[in-house]
Model the fold of this input.
Amino acid sequence: VLDLLMMVVVIAAFVVAAGYVLACEDLTGGQKDSKDSPDTAR
Amino acid sequence: MTWQGWLQVAVFIALTVALVKPVGGHIIRSVEGTGRLARMGAPFEGMLYRLAGIDPAREQSWGAYALAMLWFSLAGVVALYVLQRLQNVLPLNPQHFDAVSPDLALNTAISFTTNTSWQSYAGETTVSYLVQMAGITVQSFLSAATGIAVAIALIRGFARRSSQTVGNFWVDMTRSTLYVLLPISIIVGLFLVWQGVPQTLGPSVDMITPEGAHQVLARGPVASQEVIKLMSGDGGGFFNVNSAHPFENPTALSGLVEMLLIFVIGVALTNTFGRMIRDERQGWALLAAMGVMFAVGVAVIYAAEATPNHSFAGLHLNQGSDALQAGGNMEGKEARFGISQSSLFATVSTASSDGAVDSMHDSYMPVSGLVLLANMMVDEVIVGGPGSGLFGILLFAIVAIFAAGLMIGRTPEYVGKKLEANEIKMTMLALLAVPAATLGFTAVAAVLPGALAGLSNSGPHGFTELLYAYTSAAATNGSAFAGLNANTPFFNLTLAAAMFIGRFIVIVPVLCVAGTLAAKRAVPVSLGTLPTHSMQFVALLVGTVVIVGGLTFFPALALGPVAEQFAMQAGTLY
Done:
């Protein structure tokens, strides 16, 4: 039972980490060029 | 301090710098598959891809790269856990060890998969040869290769223009293992056997010492594990006392080679970075920043350890250095290595993510303990582990340039890429993960009676033992301060959680930065571009690391080694 519990915890942790990947993708809006970002040099 | 001691430090630094270019070039040729070794191994490599159903020509977005890394690491954790739990019914267990307990097995599985190698157990009395060879050693190779792959993906992010991909995780990991880690392990493994490190599947030996006492001499397949233990940034020893054991580190020469192994991949990757972005000066600047922080650390520790202990002043002991004794603080140090090499090894071990030890850090002076902690707290940027050191210092470079950009009102850019909101958000996520895990778990442990019962010392020294354990785990270093009985369900599980956060919650945003950078076009160098290969930038980078690390961890350090140093000078010991 303890072994099963440990494996469930491990798999859950990695699933959360995978969700973290998706959250980061959302946060950054995917992989795209930022051509609209102007240089603010004065 | 002696001139021979400083000469030893100087020789080590010179040899390390001499390895930077050749190994850095070898890493590029290996991961690109263009080197001689890579061409020779191509048929075998192709066979591995066919067996695994992988198309090596198909590149991945950063998200796919990160998910591949995560699922591969999950498989590693499960495999190592199962091996430990079944070791009593599996072969190559001549000492007939019982199965490892569930919480310890989980801690060890996560420890070696995350490239930490925190050990709550003594290897020679807990795990079988099969677990050492097929579990721990294999994970040392694979976790190091994973770190190198992530660093290469981040470098591609800087080097590529308008690209939707950062490489193929499976190819980067396979080539790093086959052409970088394995060849060095085989060659240096034979060197260590020559120096006296055992390599046998025979059981421990019962013997009678010259004094007539009965003693069990543990041995096993040590040499094959030793090299990758050091080079991988893993540091998990075959024996409990790690590289202080004469079967892991028999001579002063093997000690020097072991320190070089710890640093070689980390320093070489700075050159790999410079070459891949076609400006080697950028790599040298990163190495210079690492070198400054390392040199300060080793100087402070060597000076503190070589100085007579104030607490013994009333005893009228001779603590000076002469022909018959090393002098200074020899507690916890091997007479074979003395103060200079022990101080150097301790600095190398904590500045990298390795965590191997050839002396007991718990016995160092409090100010030395502070430096050892600080080395780990700055997030593995002083060389660090294979890959993790490079992406760690690149994260700080991004913060430094961002801060400089704020000061002059210009969009920051680094090696031709604009650094914008996405990169800064991801960088902050990565940099906050380690302090959050370190300080959060330390705070919880410091108020739980069950956790405090595991401490051997009270007061600031006891707090340092706790702080060191979680710092070591979250920074994926793995060295132990000693003085803490960590083999309890509480410590096994919370340290495992700290290691998991310190590895994967850092790597995911690093790969995200790689992806967002790869998609950008190059920004041409202009008069307003901050030169990032200059000494001015090196100073800015070092200052950023020190300030960010100092602001984050100073309160905790004040409660531990700082308080202990002042207390010791006032005559109070813990």
